[in-house]
Design brief:
Its cofactor is FAD. The protein is α/β, with parallel strands linked by helices. It is built from 8 helices and 15 strands. A 6-stranded antiparallel sheet has the order 8-7-10-5-6-9, covered by helices on one side.
Length: 383
């Protein structure tokens, strides 16, 4: 392929300043256009076909930059960057034939604050609470950690994330980059009226940041970047219906959604449905918190795949069991769908949505999904 040099083209670039090197873009690229070295993730202009499959998985928006260029930047140039070059304007669409960005925030969502704290100038938060979020006999070692930012401004919205900077250096002698964690509390704080946020952290064998966080004790401090994320946000219409589907620690943002509805939107008329999957009840973070909610506030569907002497039930099975109501909600322009958790859940959940829409004159799932995406009502954060 010969690239033009005398006319402007649109080149897809990744912002190294906010990329957290999670590899989601490279994994999702169907043409192998995205690669990386020890420094940056980059896009090969000769391979990229602007399909935008890499956009939805990116948790920070680093992937969503499109530059008009006369001479494309080479891979070597991109690999050397610490920041995007100037005076190019990031995020500018220049080609009328480009397809629209696939993922957007709900129209009624509050405007998020972004990137107030960087790796070079992070916030410093104090650990005020660290307790198990799963039962002691659970296979998954999950912890509920509360961070207090004191008098530092950290305006977090439900569905946003923060990055934790683990101490020490990597194999190349560079400071470790941040690891991203969804916030599990409402914008008013884990404890209402405080500058606190809650995290739901699964300790991973050999995991650098998860073991660091899960080993902290109250009084110790952590360095934090963010806030991050501007699409997986809670709609603010009182009449919005939320279908929330999650596995394991994917419940974190939904805990924040429910907390905010409970505190600040008690008069909301929209329904809340939570499909929560795990192997056994003891494996579910925050299992039992639902008992403290007003009756009927959230419709919980717990789906267990490893219960003794019981059939395996996954979140997609829960969706099918609630098929009649799901069918009605998916046809409702006030309904928002959020998926969070293990990546393997996506195909099963979409298949379940497709199944419940068959018959009764309902629109086919691809058409409904397209409408949901176009109106900022379909969101997926999987890992």
């Amino acid at each position: 392929m010969t690239l033009p040099t005398s006319t402007s083209i649109t080149q897809h670039l990744i912002d190294p300043a906010i990329c957290i090197r999670c590899n989601s873009c490279e994994e999702s690229c169907p043409v192998g256009a995205i690669t990386h070295d020890h420094n940056n993730y980059v896009v090969d202009v000769e391979r990229c076909n602007h399909c935008r499959a890499c956009l939805p998985p990116c948790p920070t928006g680093a992937i969503n930059h499109w530059y008009p260029v006369q001479q494309p930047y080479t891979l070597a140039q991109q690999l050397s960057w610490q920041d995007l070059p100037t005076p190019m304007q990031a995020g500018t669409e220049t080609d009328a034939n480009e397809s629209p960005v696939l993922v957007r925030a709900p129209a009624s969502a509050s405007a998020p604050a972004l990137h107030l704290y960087s790796r070079a100038a992070p916030a410093v938060a104090t650990v005020t609470l660290r307790e198990r979020a799963t039962a002691l006999d659970a296979d998954d070692d999950v912890w509920h950690i509360v961070l207090d930012f004191g008098n530092q401004a950290m305006p977090i919205l439900e569905g946003q994330s923060i990055g934790i900077l683990p101490p020490g250096l990597d194999a190349n002698g560079r400071p470790h980059i941040e690891r991203l964690y969804s916030v599990a509390s409402a914008r008013t704080g884990e404890r209402r009226g405080t500058s606190t946020v809650a995290l739901t952290v699964r300790r991973k064998p050999g995991g650098l940041c998860s073991n660091y966080l899960c080993g902290l004790v109250p009084g110790e401090t952590v360095r934090v970047v963010g806030p991050l994320g501007d699409t997986f946000l809670m709609p603010m219409e009182a009449s919005a219906n939320l279908i929330m589907v999650c596995t394991g620690t994917g419940v974190a943002p939904f805990r924040g959604f429910i907390q905010h509805r409970l505190r600040s939107m008690r008069g909301a008329t929209g329904s809340l449905m939570l499909f929560f999957g795990g192997r056994r009840p003891v494996e579910l973070p925050y299992c039992g918190e639902e008992d403290g909610l007003p009756e009927g506030f959230v419709d919980h569907y717990f789906c267990f795949s490893r219960q003794p002497d019981a059939p395996r039930i996954y979140v997609q099975d829960g969706i099918r069991a609630a098929g009649k109501r799901i069918r009605t909600l998916l046809q409702d322009e006030l309904t928002h769908v959020f998926l969070c958790g293990r990546k393997g859940m996506e195909a099963g959940v979409e298949d379940a949505f497709a199944g419940v829409l068959r018959g009764d004159g309902a629109s086919a799932w691809p058409m409904v999904r397209e409408r949901l995406l176009a109106s900022g009502r379909y969101h997926v954060e999987t890992y």
